[in-house]
Automatic annotation (TrEMBL):
<dbReference type="GO" id="GO:0008483">
    <property type="term" value="F:transaminase activity"/>
</dbReference>
<comment type="similarity">
    <text>Belongs to the class-IV pyridoxal-phosphate-dependent aminotransferase family.</text>
</comment>
<dbReference type="Pfam" id="PF19798">
    <property type="entry name" value="Sulfotransfer_5"/>
</dbReference>
<dbReference type="InterPro" id="IPR050571">
    <property type="entry name" value="Class-IV_PLP-Dep_Aminotrnsfr"/>
</dbReference>
<keyword id="KW-0032">Aminotransferase</keyword>
<dbReference type="InterPro" id="IPR027417">
    <property type="entry name" value="P-loop_NTPase"/>
</dbReference>
<protein>
    <submittedName>
        <fullName>Branched-chain-amino-acid aminotransferase-like protein 2</fullName>
    </submittedName>
</protein>
<keyword id="KW-0808">Transferase</keyword>
<dbReference type="GO" id="GO:0019752">
    <property type="term" value="P:carboxylic acid metabolic process"/>
</dbReference>
Length: 239
């Protein structure tokens, strides 16, 4: 059986471009936000294309989590997870035996990007409290800290970080991870039409540059709370 890497992040966090890199390998199968349907069905939260997401995805979290914990027979498994999709009442026993990486991004940049796609986000919407909770749980289960990568660091040296991630996951690095064809993928979730326009145009990782713009005053409290959590996780990042 092949190994599994679960990548844990919030939205607008380089997560889909990272998924593209892994999918461009010939030996890897990717899974785009496995728990999204279950999350929307259980919470009733209104998201763009929410009805279609629930209709086209398994919405029983127990079934999804069992599938997430089951290795593929002949391909490495890469799972792109949103941390806020893991609700507090979900069992986390399935996290054992899986490689985990936590992908961070400055919450200012996350909020500037997210607010363009969905108005009035909350702190829970960008997944930082849940990311910290899962980080602590995974650390307890593994007996050591999982890998933590900051998006800014990654974009400055993508090859270096991908090499480390591959070694961590027990597979050889492939230069195919550094670029990919533009366009949609069959593996993209139905929500891609709303969220993935920039990724569909991409052919690789762009150089990091600070996101321009000022946060709406309504988002400042969310940013301050989020930054405290971000800084706590940031200290553990791979440098």
């Amino acid at each position: 059986m092949k190994s599994i890497l679960a990548m844990w992040s919030g939205p607008r966090n380089l997560s889909t471009a990272m998924m593209r890199a892994w999918e461009n390998r010939s030996d890897t199968q990717v899974w785009d936000e496995p728990l999204y349907g279950a999350y929307l069905r259980q919470t009733g939260i209104q998201h763009p294309m929410g009805e279609a997401i629930i209709a086209q995805n398994e919405s029983d979290p127990a079934i999804v989590m069992q599938q997430c914990a089951t290795p593929n027979a002949d391909s490495f498994s890469y799972q792109k997870h949103m941390t806020h999709h893991v609700l507090p009442d979900y069992s986390l026993d399935w996290l054992a035996g899986i490689h985990h990486c936590f992908l961070l991004r400055d919450p200012r940049e996350v909020l500037l990007s997210y607010a363009q796609k969905r108005e009035q986000p909350t702190l829970d919407d960008i997944g930082l409290p849940q990311q910290l909770r899962l980080f602590r749980e995974v650390t307890d289960q593994l007996g050591h800290m999982p890998m933590v990568i900051d998006a800014k660091d990654f974009l400055r040296k993508p090859k270096r970080y991908l090499e480390v991630l591959c070694e961590y996951s027990g597979i050889p690095f492939s230069s195919a991870m550094l670029s990919w064809p533009a366009g949609r993928r069959e593996s993209d979730g139905v929500w891609a039409e709303h969220w993935y326009d920039s990724v569909w145009k991409s052919t690789g990782f762009g150089a990091w540059k600070a996101r321009e713009g000022e946060l709406d005053h309504k988002l400042l409290d969310i940013y301050r709370e989020g930054d405290e959590i971000y800084q706590e996780l940031y200290q553990y990042r791979l440098v």
